[in-house]
Amino acid sequence: MVPDAITLRDLTPDTLKSFKRLHQVLFPVAFTDAYYKESLKIGSLAKLAFHNDTCVGVLRCAYDESSSTLYILAIGVLAPYRHLGIGSRLYNYLILQARERGAAKVELHVQTSNENAIEWYKARGFQIIEKVDGYYKRALDKDAYLLRSVIE
Q1: What DSSP line would sit under 20-76, residue for residue?
Q2: d(Cα 132, Cα 139) in Å, to the nearest integer?
Q3: For residue 9, how far is the Cα from the chain centroid?
Q4: Handedness of CA 57, 113, 71, 133 (dihedral sign)
Q5: Element containing residue 18 per DSSP (H, E)
Q6: What is the enclosing helix (H) or strand (E) of 108?
Q7: Considering only CA atoms, which of 56, 59, 93 is closest in space to residue 77?
Q8: Which residues, in sequence order, are CB contacts of 132 under 8 Å at separation 6+?
Q9: Is the pTM of this model over 0.85?
Q10: How many other CB atoms are found less than 10 A from the CB of residue 35?
Q11: 3-class state of residue 125 by DSSP
């Protein structure tokens, strides 16, 4: 694979449809219209990943200055494009964003049944902080783990 085959691009009104579609395919929850509108305004905390010219991955974060936390709202790559380094590229980008903002930690919630994601995050230094029963209101598996990684 040619390294230049993977690019990260800003979310724009022209790419919003792809951003929404990836969320629908990759995540077990429905995101609101307000989420998508805010995503257009959040700047560098929303990205799309492309393999060649095909949109295959998404990243959406939020930064809470009061707790010095970068929170991952969504990160994912379509199954046929996993294991090509795209998720790692998105992750490395979000760590850069965390450092630029002076974040002390990165957090996210993951369904307790999503063993692949949990292992992926653990391999990157995340630890399970707590189990949150009923975190996902409209998903089959409603329970989540809060994962955290300290920024060094």
Answers
A1: HHHHHHH-SSPPPHHHHHHHHHSGGGEEEEEETTEEEEEEEEEEETTTTEEEEEEEE
A2: 14
A3: 14
A4: positive
A5: helix 16-26
A6: strand 105-111
A7: 56
A8: 109, 143, 144, 145, 146
A9: yes
A10: 14
A11: coil
Closest CA to 56 of 90, 14, 28: 90
- pLDDT tens by residue, the chain, 152 residues: 445 699 999 999 999 999 999 999 999 888 999 999 999 999 999 999 999 999 999 999 999 999 999 999 999 999 999 999 999 999 999 999 999 999 999 999 999 999 999 999 999 999 999 999 999 887 778 899 999 999 98
Q: Residue 125 carries which side chain, given as an amino acid letter?
A: G
Distance CA 64, CA 53 (A): 33
Instruction: Tell me which residues are annotated as active site.
Output: 71, 109
The sign of the torsion formed by the CA atoms of 22, 27, 28, 34 equals negative
Token pair, residue 151, equals 């920024």
The pair of three-digit structure tokens given for residue 40, joined into one six-digit string: 């257009």
